[in-house]
Amino acid sequence: MPPKTPRLINNRQDVNSQCLDAGTTGTRATFSQDFDWGTNDSHITASRGVDLQGPGPQARTDSSADPPATAAQGLDFKADDPPLDDPQTGDLQTNYEALLGRRAWQRLHGDIRRRFGCGYVHRATCYRGVMQDVSLSFTGRLLAQLCRLIGTPLSLHQGRDVPVTVKVYPDRRVGGLCWDRFYYFPGARVNRVRSTKCICRQSGLVEVVGGGFGMCLKVTERQGAICFESSRFFWQMGRCRFYIPSLFTPGKTTVVQTALAGGRFRFELEVVHTVLGLMFRQSGIFTEVETAADQ
């Protein structure tokens, strides 16, 4: 039986208390996410009073382009390729070790294994850091603006030394993890970039954004770092998934997370189109600041 499509509840979404609707009890999600789509303000609060505000005064989020739902809203996985995480019961079985293989997993830095281990999916986590470089080509900037029609899956601006907050929390309605990224560009409204990662039985790891668009990801180990590389982009409507020719995609997407001293890590992203060349590049250093762990 395919997972239920996520629902909006009075125009608000509560990951903490409303994400399970299958007659189960004892929901353990500890991170609540409230979005009021009738205003330009969106906020995220931890159920234990964790302060997850960005740097400086409370800033308004550029939510005019946000769709009225999460990145995975409307996603209906094919019956033969459901998420390993069960949105009906909230049983999260995401296992990056299985994707990598035991030997590659053991070669990862210990901090990365902890961050992507089985317990990782049962927590809501906040990371803060600085993107030392956020670059867009001219075509990349046009594409980022165009993609506002389906959410805001790409950074809209470029700059250096940009403060960024990343909030990761389970989305048990679709069986995956939502990654909420907030870029604080000087002189601009907060640029919010959001996507959801799910591990499917056949496709492996997929990352979905708005409008049914997403990409399949290959996970590898590189000298102790974890690497995510796009293999195929797709558009999914209901249970039908259509793969997009590479020429009509943003380009080969590569994300590398490398452990640094003191529990910090370096995040690097590159998107390279087969014809247009480099479209997007980001590089920054982050640290985990708060974790709301399930009990």
UniProtKB/TrEMBL annotation:
<dbReference type="Pfam" id="PF13761">
    <property type="entry name" value="DUF4166"/>
</dbReference>
<feature type="domain" description="DUF4166">
    <location>
        <begin position="108"/>
        <end position="286"/>
    </location>
</feature>
<feature type="compositionally biased region" description="Polar residues">
    <location>
        <begin position="8"/>
        <end position="45"/>
    </location>
</feature>
<protein>
    <submittedName>
        <fullName>DUF4166 domain-containing protein</fullName>
    </submittedName>
</protein>
<feature type="region of interest" description="Disordered">
    <location>
        <begin position="1"/>
        <end position="91"/>
    </location>
</feature>
<dbReference type="InterPro" id="IPR025311">
    <property type="entry name" value="DUF4166"/>
</dbReference>
